[in-house]
Amino acid sequence: MKPAEPLILSIESSCDDSGAAVLRGRRVLSNVVYSQTVHEAYGGVVPELASRAHLQTLVPTVRAALAQAGVAFGELDAVAATEGPGLLGSLLVGHGTAKALAQSLDLPFIGVHHIQAHVLAHSLMEPGVQERPLEGFPFLALVVSGGHTQLFDVRGPFDFRLLGGTLDDAVGEAFDKAAKMFGLPYPGGPEVDRRAEFGNPQRFALARMQTPGLDFSYSGLKTSILYALQKEQKLRPETLTEDLNDWCASARLALVQPLLDRLDRALQPEHRYAVLAGGVAANRLLRREFEAWGLRRELPVGIPPLSYATDNAAMIGAVAYYAFAEGRFSGMDRAASARLEVPSLHG
Q: Alpha helices, DSSP H only, in 32-126?
């Protein structure tokens, strides 16, 4: 008789969302996220406020995830949590809570890398959300978020080979900075994307990224948006009132295009498919263009449902599933880290 797949409770607290999920193997039984709203008044995430909010919301979020899954603490086989990277105070709350639960229940604990989890979220199965995930290795992964813009050659669940990364600002940060220039409220990136759907992306000419190879640099693009806006405002002070959607569409195209350019350079014949991962994977233009890119190359692509694109605990459970299968458990002396390298066997 085939043994039952492990029942794992996973916790995510790397930034400003408290997440808890219960998985049976790679099947998501529940995935609960409590989003903090306290940061809206400050125009960005305040680390101290984030960690305090996690202290208040994480335990109720865990209880909600167990209740939705119909699972009791005593039925669990392991507990997992984000180990890094992220805001250290926030990480400590989730990481410490998971270790305490694992120790009190005499269960294995699994510390998970946040970016590795985003990438492996494409392997999850959940009715009505993601029912036929792509399978196998190697594959190409594009990670896009507020803190990361990276291309990986993924040879196995714990064998990530970095092909290119950001030299300065990540694409998600660039979106938020552009939104601030346009006078949009926090979080600005999604609002730029929403307004861009109604604008003309060719209206304002912006610079193209010039970095060689597979690395990314968004500081120059941010400066180009700022200078173009200042120049237009001198001629037409009302431009942000009358042309806001066009500014959003032009900026979105300039920020998304380099991602697609480097996909072509990174793709290798042995890649079985390509996946999009990270919070910026919710961007409408990027999702459309990523799918079109795959169709042109007759390559399957994995585009995460919105519930897996942003920070969530189910993706932590995806890594935990592979770790459990290989006996990759973490010691109770392991500490969360704001900076953590992606697991790699090759540099």
A: 47-69, 88-105, 114-120
Q: Which CATH superfamily is domain 7-130+308-326 in?
A: ATPase, nucleotide binding domain (3.30.420.40)
Q: Measure the N-to-C terminal CA separation of the chain; round to a whole number of Å.
A: 41
Give the mean pLDDT of 105-126.
96
Domain boundaries, the chain: 7-130+308-326, 139-303
Does residue 32 contact residue 21 with C-beta atoms inside 8 Å?
yes
The CATH number given to 139-303 is 3.30.420.40
State pTM to two decimals.
Answer: 0.91
Q: What is the mean pLDDT of the chain?
A: 92
What's the whole-number mean pLDDT along residues 234-257? 97
Strand blocks (E) in the chain: 7-12, 17-24, 27-35, 78-84, 109-113, 139-144, 149-156, 159-164, 274-277, 301-302
Residue 47 pLDDT grade (very low, low, confident, very high; cuts 50, 70, 90): confident
CA distance 112 to 159: 14
The answer to whether 41 touches 51, Cβ cutoff 8 Å, is no
| Residue 333 burial (CB count, 10 A) | 6
The closest of 29, 15, 26 to 64, measured between CA atoms, is: 29
Task: Please provide the DSSP assignment of 241-265 as one string.
Answer: HHSHHHHHHHHHHHHHHHHHHHHHH
Share of the chain above pLDDT 90, in %: 79
pLDDT in the model for residue 41: 58
Closest CA to 248 of 284, 279, 277, 276: 284
201: preceding bond cis by omega (within 30 degrees): no
Phi, psi of 36 (to 5 degrees): -80, 135
Q: Which of 265, 251, 154 is nearest to 211 (CA)?
A: 265
Question: Token match 């269960």: residue?
Answer: 107
